[in-house]
Specification:
- The protein is mainly α.
- It has four helices and two strands, in the order αααββα.
- A two-stranded antiparallel ribbon has the order 1-2.
- The longest helix has 25 residues.
- The relative contact order is 0.19.
């Protein structure tokens, strides 16, 4: 069961943030193009960074805490999911604060 630890943490983070979407109507997931344009640069930079660190031997993952599903370059699936889940949680949090405070985003019609 310990090999699901990383996934469990990611699921917990997502679970703690996803309720903001329907409750505060932040519409982060409904604006999927904007979300995708935000995630792609993050994924590109940090996946490349991780791959370089793994190849150089500077970065490793505890095999007891990951599922063992490795992507090319030895990148665990959970690490890729980390680069998706954490930015989504941050954006949901930011948009929730913006919605509650009624701060404009700058793209209102």
């Amino acid at each position: 069961m310990r090999h699901f630890a990383y996934l469990a943490v990611l699921a917990g983070c997502l679970g703690c943030a996803l309720w903001l979407e329907p409750t505060l109507r932040v519409n982060v997931l409904r604006r999927w193009r904007r979300l995708l344009l935000t995630l792609l640069p993050v994924l590109a930079v940090f996946v490349l960074w991780d791959l370089a660190a793994i190849a150089a031997g500077h970065w490793t993952f505890d095999p007891a805490q990951i599922t063992g599903v490795l992507l090319p370059g030895g990148l665990p699936l959970e690490e890729l999911l980390f680069f998706v889940v954490v930015p989504i949680c941050a954006i949901l949090g930011f948009e929730a604060v913006r919605a509650v405070r009624r701060w404009p985003a700058g793209d209102e019609e």
